[in-house]
Amino acid sequence: MSFQDRTRRFLILSVLGFILGAGIAGLSILMESGDKNQGHQESLPFVAPHIGGPFHLINQDGKAVTDKDFAGKYLLIYFGFASCPAICPTELQKITNTYQSLSKDWQDRIQPIFITIDPERDTPDILKDYVALFLPHMVGLTGTTDQIEKVKKAYKVYGAKVPEGTSYTMDHSSFIYFMGPDTKPLAMFRVSDTADKMTRTIQTLGINAQQ
What we know:
There is one protein chain. This protein is an alpha+beta fold. It folds into two domains: 1-41; 56-210, Glutaredoxin, CATH 3.40.30.10. Helix content is 44%, strand content 22%. The protein has helices spanning 3-40, 87-101, 104-109, 124-131, 145-154, 195-210; strands at 56-59, 64-66, 74-80, 110-116, 139-142, 159-164, 167-172, 176-179, 185-189. Strands 2-1-5-4-3-8-9 form a seven-stranded mixed sheet. A two-stranded antiparallel ribbon has the order 6-7. A hairpin with a 4-residue loop joins strand 1 and strand 2. Helix 2 packs across helix 6 (195-210). It is globular.
């Protein structure tokens, strides 16, 4: 290889090295910037499509109610059962904490609802005492087995009996559903989502839903 060829090769490799180095440096800066921005931005809870729908149930006062009774309201809905030992009361308390941290204007627009997946045991009287432990105006809903199965299907809720001694407990999915006044789902909060995150999300998505 001649001196000129070696020189030309050196220059080409030097230029390629510079370009590659600049690209890596730029990528590093972008990634670092993205990490910093991510620290200031909170991802919104996911929401599954085609969640929700009409329902006909019985409230804690023994009155027949439908989804139309809550028209125009934002809904915070949780499915569980009154004898649940841990998850259900924890999630309902989270709804309570979220609701109480909102402004009066927001509180007037939101209806918290607890729907049982155990209608055999959760009678209106049972639900009346149970929901009163959390919020005075939280609505407890039960119904026939068929009615409960229909609303579970509409919200994609899993729930099944698990034998426990001479009785049973219930295995079930655990999401808090945030539904808009137009009955469309806005967010599904996981067990890992805090009340603070729920409060911020409700305020953000609620404002966006009105625009």
